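Dear colleague,

Thank you for sharing your sequence with our group. We've completed the structure prediction you requested, and as agreed, I am returning the results in plain text so they can be pasted directly into your records. Please verify that the sequence below matches your submission; if there's any discrepancy, let me know and we will rerun it promptly.
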Amino acid sequence: MDEPARRSLVREAMKAPYLERSEELELALRWKEQRDQEALHRITVAHMRLVIAMAGRFRQFGLSMNDLIQEGHVGLLEAAARFEPDREVRFSTYATWWIRASMQDFVLRNWSIVRGGTSSTQKALFFNLRRLRARIAQNGQASTSGDVYREVATTLGVTVADVARMDARLSGSDISLNAPLASDNESGAERVDMLVSDAPLPDEVVGATIDSERRSRWLHKALSTLNPRELSIIRERRLRDEGATLEALGSKLGISKERVRQIEGRALEKLRVAMIQAHPEMVGAAA
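Please find the predicted structure tokens below.
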């Protein structure tokens, strides 16, 4: 919508007649029960002044008035689609919530490339922090930023940490990771170059996970070659977070700790042979 079109829309909206309660109810019923497009048109045209007035409240966020009006119109149509005439509520009262919600969502989508305002708490902070902070400062209710944060947190029922985080977001703007580190940029270094991480790359993580799952399946199959006592010793000694001692296992099984060591060694060898026979490629990989 260009500027002349917006001005024309505003003029038409301001000239549109107000609807009496009985007329509004009759139009709402025609739209709800008969899907009468003319009735819908008359309802929306009569309430476009509400959309325009609401859009003016969101101009402080630096967005186009035209875009705000369009988003508000979407909310107005949504209100018309959901309105229940039988509840005996004026349409303007019901539509106000949908118009405001549509514009708030538009502001949040376009304020930053980082999605914010995903909860009711964050939305309340985003749209009320500046107003409350200005009012508190004007009334002299707080002398420091910490006092202001605590006052806002108490008013909105949120934590001081939530207020501080939202204030930081509102105070700064998005910065590209490809922006130069210095104004002269002689080195060609960008901000992204400073984001060095020692963590494995995603493909390395996925590869390690797949290898780990594969080795677990191989081991589980190889364990089936052990007899019950060998399996018990391997599980107690090798497959638990804190392996049992030779003395403890010997006492439990009624044998000496040296005998436990011998059985463990034999079981490990059987596992090695079973896994190599099932997967000869392991020999080359180990080498």
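Summary note from our side: Residues 202-223 form the longest helix (22 residues).

Kind regards,
the structure core
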